[in-house]
Predict the 3D structure of the following.
Amino acid sequence: MKHLLETPKNSIPGIFRGEKQKWPLLRNPSLALFPAPAAFVLPVPHHFFFSLLLLAMLWIAMPLAVAGEAQPVAEDPVLEKRVMALAEELRCLKCQNNTLADSPSELAHDLLREIRTLMQSGKSDAEVVAYLVERYGEYVRFRPSMNQTTALLWFGPLILIVGGAIVLLITLLRRRKRIAAATPLSDAERTRAAILLNKKMNDGAGEAGT
Amino acid sequence: MLRFLVPLGIFAALVAFLWVGLGKDPSLVPSPLIGKPAPAFRVVQLHDPNSQIGNADMLGKVWLLNVWASWCASCRHEHPLFMELARARLVPIYGLNYKDKREDGVNWLSQLGDPYVVSAFDADGRVGIDYGVYGVPETYVIDRQGIIRYKHVGPVTMEALQTKILPLVKELEKI
């Protein structure tokens, strides 16, 4: 869940011992920017049971890790509620589709602490958001504020729908006008059309009959 | 003719937008700090807990601020480039040791070499928050007046150095 740019050292001591020639790419820190999953790195037949054991260990350790990521509840439950409510509205820049409230990253943790401190010092929600926008940009807000650069984002769909409706309306009106303007058929034309249609219909019936 | 050309034109514009969008890295967030004064900080130095360092000390020169940590793999990746840059003495590089243990940071530098004039020590990441750091390493170009001119997120590459950072530094030094 850690971001690519911020991963701890990628070597697990012991695992690579004696595997240097076999996995040169994974040994090369310039190519392996993030730790490959253990099960992927290990040659399966040889270390199969070891990787199973590793998986089992990971599985057991998982609840512990999750417990470690839980945010400490401040002494003041009202404040904590306010912090978390605001954090729902803010994007974690590390795991970009998570909110600050549910991101497990360390940066989110630090920012929550910062928000808590700011609120304790009497800052309003709007002031806290402004503080973060000043540093991380408009991007931290899941609901961007309305200004010149975001106007298209806010009104774009409305413009499209209204524009579409206008185009549709114009097209329909023009069509109606065209239909109204068309000269009606003369009696001769009408008779000819009837004959043609009849013939066709008879032909069709004849074909279907045979 | 027009009734075909208009939708085709709209379609072409859409494709152009999507094409440009595909080439962009969504993990890069434009910093609101560019063109603004670098946030003030004054913290202790990594190597000397009794001395302090702040951005005000660098006023009057163009400098790089590189945010790094011993636990950051990409920092190791960009490190040789900074060593080379320091040797070339093209621009002073100041480090911000971000959310690290003092001992680990000092060891890292003594093992790999120290390209920094001074490293500031930001143990709890407070300075990092002021600078909008969200992925280490990050590198800022700051001008003589203390204005942030450029921010590079992720390891600095030779390409970024040659095409963006160094030309910018040269230009800023003329002013």
Observations:
- The radius of gyration of chain A is 34 Å.
